[in-house]
């Protein structure tokens, strides 16, 4: 009888441990479901006075270009407290299997729910002399990867932003690692239609910032199906990320294996002692 209790106790402990291992995966699925609802709502949203709203955003971009961007702040040092639910666009990056809403203002609430457009950077409208600086968490947040795999992006990769008027396509031009106070690195560049992705670096710390610069795709780029640039060797951050994922899969696999073994052992014990 004691042996049977031991089997049962061991099974409960293993199942408990397995649930702990599976918690991030469960969180990921829940977050994906929530994000999918936000994206669906954005796609179904019929914005009233679209032309008026568009012209307001155009004037905002023009003012930034003319008056300068002295108030741009690092996303993780920003004092912004925006909590509104307004989504200004959807970002899709095939290389990273990423599809996330973009909120205006790099508040912690917005970074928790998706990506955030830094204050005093351009609205993503596809205009010259504009740079939309979009921040995202690196290590994942509540189970969502966000910009965790950003180092997979290389020159020639595509980034898509869908606003309420059209889908804009950008091509990655280069990447750069900067210090958090080098905010001038993300300012508007005269005549260029750009987006800049920004996140913490190196993973899983936030000592520096990792930037991905992308420029609006020309017709030639749009007709090219795949970039010709080869994937570079994995960085230390990316190696760590892949190692974490491997250990997670191994832990889950071992947990299932032990549960099955204990289950069969317990059934065998019950049959033997009937």
TrEMBL record:
CDD domains: Sortase_C. Residues 220-239 are annotated as: Disordered. The chain crosses the membrane at residues 7-26, 246-269. SUPFAM superfamilies: Sortase. It comes from the Bacteria. Keywords: Hydrolase, Membrane, Transmembrane, Transmembrane helix. The active site is at 137 (proton donor/acceptor), 200 (acyl-thioester intermediate). GO terms for molecular function: hydrolase activity. Residues 226-238 have a biased composition (Polar residues). This is Sortase A. It comes from Longicatena caecimuris. The lineage of its organism: Bacteria, Bacillati, Bacillota, Erysipelotrichia, Erysipelotrichales.
């Amino acid at each position: 009888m004691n042996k049977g209790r031991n089997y049962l106790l061991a099974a409960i402990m293993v199942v408990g441990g397995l649930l702990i291992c599976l918690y991030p995966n469960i969180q990921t699925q829940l977050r994906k479901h929530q994000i999918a609802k936000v994206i669906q709502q954005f796609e179904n949203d019929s914005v009233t006075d679209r032309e008026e709203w568009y012209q307001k955003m155009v004037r905002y971009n023009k003012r930034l270009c003319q008056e300068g961007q002295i108030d741009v702040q690092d996303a993780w040092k920003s004092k912004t407290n925006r909590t509104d639910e307004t989504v200004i666009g959807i970002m899709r990056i095939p290389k990273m299997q990423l599809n996330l809403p973009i909120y205006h203002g790099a508040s912690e609430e917005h970074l928790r729910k998706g990506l955030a457009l830094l204050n005093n950077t351009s609205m993503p409208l596809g205009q010259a002399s504009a740079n939309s600086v979009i921040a995202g968490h690196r290590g994942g947040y509540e189970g969502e990867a966000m910009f965790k795999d950003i180092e997979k992006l290389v020159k020639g990769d595509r980034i898509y932003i869908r606003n309420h008027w059209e889908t804009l396509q950008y091509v990655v031009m280069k990447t750069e690692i900067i210090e958090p106070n080098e905010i001038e690195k993300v300012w508007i560049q005269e005549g260029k239609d750009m987006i800049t992705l920004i996140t913490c670096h190196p993973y899983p710390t936030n000592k520096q910032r990792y930037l991905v610069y992308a420029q609006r795709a020309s017709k030639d780029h749009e007709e090219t199906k795949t970039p010709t640039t080869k994937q570079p060797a994995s960085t230390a951050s990316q190696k760590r990320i892949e190692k974490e994922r491997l250990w997670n899969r191994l832990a889950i696999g071992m947990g299932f294996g032990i549960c099955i073994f204990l289950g069969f052992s317990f059934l065998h014990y019950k049959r033997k002692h009937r």
